[in-house]
Amino acid sequence: MKIGVLGTGMVGQTIGTKLVRMSQDVMMGSRSSTNEKAAAWVKANGPKASAGTFADAAKFGEILFNCTHGVASLDALKLAGAENMKGKILIDVANPLDFSKGMPPILSVSNTDSLGEQIQRAFPDVKVVKSLNTINCKLMVNPSLVRGDHDVFISGNDQTAKSRVTEILKNWFGWKSVVDLGDIGSARGAEQLLPLWVRLVGALGTANFNLKIVK
Fold first, then answer.
1. What's the Cα-to-Cα distance from 168 to each of 23, 101, 205, 207, rounded to whole Å?
2. Burial degree of 95 (CB within 10 A; 0-12, 13-18, 19+)
């Protein structure tokens, strides 16, 4: 399958590398077709890896991952182009973390809205599924880094799209427990876990941890 990964940071590179290792064809997108990080990633990952602009990657991918910085995601997705994303699943991994006032970061959108909802409103013909945003990027693609059972969440309006993303999470990334929170409005809850997550990193001294929902 052809996958477009939007974003060249640690999250995008980790997800892109995992997908290549799962024999998927992956194009990494950025603002420039000559992005140095993307070029280095392609060189390290072989013939199934390629790079281009956000628009190139969005057009290339049958399924897309938004791994851009959350405060810049809407601008990046506008560059990707609504027509290039139309009808496709966009797995939104980003968080609207604002570091402008230092640490800890604050959420630039919360309570009455979420980044996931903003993206869905801006691109109504795209099937936005919020997921993987509540965990460290290494854990995203290798849940076995944390012992025992633990959960990853999904939010989205399209049930078929959520079912497809659940398959990807389980079959490609190795997740056993995927909790469907509901429509894209439930992305508010997932994104609002980030202030707690940041504090837990400091308290635990590691980002290799996750939540388990116990009933």
1. 13, 36, 30, 23
2. buried
pLDDT digits over 77-89, tens only?
Answer: 999 999 999 999 9
pTM of the model: 0.97
Annotate 147-174 with b (16+ C-beta within 10 A) or e (fewer).
Answer: eeebbbbbbbbbeebbebbbebbeebbe
Read off the pLDDT of residues 74-131 as tens digits, 9 standing for 90 and up: 999 999 999 999 999 999 999 999 988 888 888 999 999 999 999 999 999 999 999 9
Planar angle of CA 69, 72, 77, nearest 5 degrees: 100
Q: What are the structural domains of the chain?
A: 2-204 (3.40.50.720)
CA distance 111 to 159: 24
